[in-house]
Amino acid sequence: MVNEDEVTLLEESYPWSNLKQKSKSSSRILGLTIALAFSTFGFLLGVFIGPYLPGRLDTLCLAKTSIPSPLTPDVKISYHEQMFNSTLFGNSIYRQEPSPEVDQAWTDIGVYLGVILVDEDKALKAGISKGHITTPPEAGGQYYVNVEVFHQLHCLNLLRKTNYWNHDYYAKLGENEFVNEDHIVRIHADHCLDALREQLMCTADIGVLPYVRVKDKGRAYPDFPAAPHMCRNFDDIREWARDAQLGKEWTQYLRDPQPGDIVLDQIP
């Protein structure tokens, strides 16, 4: 026969609640550990792999090789591999004898694209100073600017026009740059030569040109079309600048110099 004390002992429950609490605590710790491990893995994946994802690499490349530009919020700058075709005896429209067709081809790629307006916040991020010329405050206080690539193409076109074989043709036309006296045209051309030199040195192309043999020739020749290049999406940039340009009469809207404006002693 079981006495009362034995019954009490038999009925005393095992502390299952404590065991469940420990089990829940262990599960929670395990869950946090797993979550932390996945978070760490995701972070490391983002750091080492993320920059190389499509699109992200283009953004990083642009940030590393260019100063901020007002174009980038509006134009998705992307990159593509392209083979050049400037062969030694090629017949590109851009290198043919002077003619209205050749001049139009140069015009079409943007050598005469005009001034555009840039909001102050974008202008200051691009390195423009507050003292540069703007529209009046009541008109928005935007900055007048040119996109560099089209100034560079303009310079290249001027060098084409002023070279020994083409100069007389354009001097007789007396249009565009040649409305000026000859010594001014020469100063303009010298400026362009130096501007392109600076640009080529700044963006030094480290691609390489292989050489080939040619039948019945006793020397080697550079194989110009064989060298791949990484290029930006020029057409998108040109279309953006074309749509954003002002009319040729933009200078009539210039306001008088204001306190704080940059006023130089001579033409830069």
TrEMBL record:
Signal peptide: none annotated. Pathway: Mycotoxin biosynthesis. Keywords: Membrane, Transmembrane, Transmembrane helix. It holds the Pfam family UstYa. The keyword tRNA processing does not apply. The chain crosses the membrane at residues 29-53. GO terms for biological process: mycotoxin biosynthetic process. Belongs to the ustYa family. This is Tat pathway signal sequence. It comes from Hyaloscypha variabilis (strain UAMH 11265 / GT02V1 / F) (Meliniomyces variabilis).
